[in-house]
Amino acid sequence: MKISKITPQKRNKNRCSVYIDGQYSFGVTKELIHKYDLTEDSEITEEEIQNLLLHDEREKIKSRAYRLLSFRERSAAEMRARLLKAGYDSSLVDDVIEDLVASDTLNDERFAALFVKDYTNLKPKGNRFIVHELTKKGIARQTIEKVLAIRDERKLMQQFMQRKLKNLDARDFRDRQKIARRLLQRGFTPHIVYDVLNQQK
């Protein structure tokens, strides 16, 4: 088969349409045109076309991943789920995820550390909440334990009580129940909640 024409696409100047034997065959990026050294009047096999299209599809997936990362960090599992939901082939998605992890573009430990930082400084939540949410996002238990190891949940909870619950008296039974309910709703570890409250009776 012979490439008869290569022309830039009207809607996307970064992509080209490739014609074989006078008829449109496929579209790929200009980068791949140069990488595979495609030129008019050159020969191309069906196998080469399939390899080229697979490479092009991987690049599309990677571009989508970078767009998602432009909004915020994501875990590898979270990224995989979003790409599969977009309709991409699972084996190609796995290839892209592997590349992004290898290049440190995706890093579950960094993602988890930033997640913990947000729920410590911006909107304080307890360790139980963080474990639950990070587990849902596919973060390994070992990684979660590592990023929580340097976090003083007891101190964070006491600071939250001083800022947000200062109008409640922990020595009063009803107020103590209200405080406990608020803290548990924010995902603080139950035994720490009751330990701190019992010390204030």
TrEMBL record:
Residues 155-197 form the RecX third three-helical domain. InterPro entries: RecX_HTH_1st, RecX_HTH_2nd, RecX_HTH_3rd, Regulatory_RecX, WH-like_DNA-bd_sf. One of its GO terms (biological process) is regulation of DNA repair. One of its GO terms (cellular component) is cytoplasm. Residues 107-148 form the RecX second three-helical domain. Keywords: Cytoplasm. Residues 62-100 form the RecX first three-helical domain. It is found in: Cytoplasm. Belongs to the RecX family. Modulates RecA activity. This is Regulatory protein RecX. It comes from candidate division WOR_3 bacterium SM23_60. The lineage of its organism: Bacteria, Bacteria division WOR-3.
